Task: structure prediction
Amino acid sequence: MTTEHHHPTPAQYWKIAVLLGVLTAIEVGMYYINRAYDLGALNAISLVILATLKFVIVVAFYMHLRYEKSTLSRFFTGGFVLAASLYTVVLAALGVLVIRGP
Amino acid sequence: MADVLHEAQLDHPEHESTGVDNRKLGMWLFLSSEFLFFGALISNYLLYSNRAGFAGTYPSEIYDIPFTSVSSFVLLMSSLTMVLAHNALTRADINGTRTWLFATAALGSVFLGGQVFEFTEFIVNSNMKLTTNPAASAFYVLTGFHGTHVAIGVIMLLSLWGISRRPGGLSEKHGMNLELVGLYWHFVDIIWIVIFTVVYLLSVPPA
Result:
């Protein structure tokens, strides 16, 4: 049932963890840089990109989605896209999603 | 009799017509539906977090970013120990599985302890209670529900760890059980990745 023969090795899992730790450190660094220099929209965009990277790495490698059948990817991505679209529209309609310029 | 039935179930794969084990498909569908649940709570927080005019303390005024960063790192690393537990079981390394399962439960408990400490600080020292204002309510409901998910995960991990201590309790044949708990645990982690960024790092107090 499982597809272990494609999965990363323990050493690769550790390398992925180091990468996730580095990305988290960059996120926190961005937070303090923004507090000092007020980066405006650049801060929000950078943090969203970094969080997206971490999200995708965990789903692809730790949850093994990239090694699974496409059926699972479609269900999972479908649920995410549905939720993200729905709440983006709702928040935009309520005037919450406004990004300040630098 | 129950043991015979259990063994018989293990010897025969679950029925599936999609090419994917039904239990795994069910878990992925459940996790997919959870996006709607957490999406609603995150949207609720975004709606109220920096709306001016509420009395009392706003959550974004009192966040302890260094502390929450460490908590986030701990939860992130628990995903590593979880996947190492799964990897050990696929190599029939039961001792390794047991160790990494316990490490994952321990890291999850540390995260929960951090959340209890944070809530206590906010309530006692900053006087921000659940009913202080809508922003505070949204914060506590969102992070509280996430914490509840973590607590359920810790219970499942400790249950698996307890089963693994029985002779023959956990073997390669039970890989799917551990895989399903692992999927749930990683999902809790990715939801925190979103919460950490959106709620803690991007929140600003109202002008």
In short: The mean pLDDT of chain A is 87. Residues 10-37 of chain A form the longest helix (28 residues). The CA atoms of residues 6 and 67 of chain A lie 7 Å apart. Helices of chain A lie at 10-37, 41-62, 70-93.
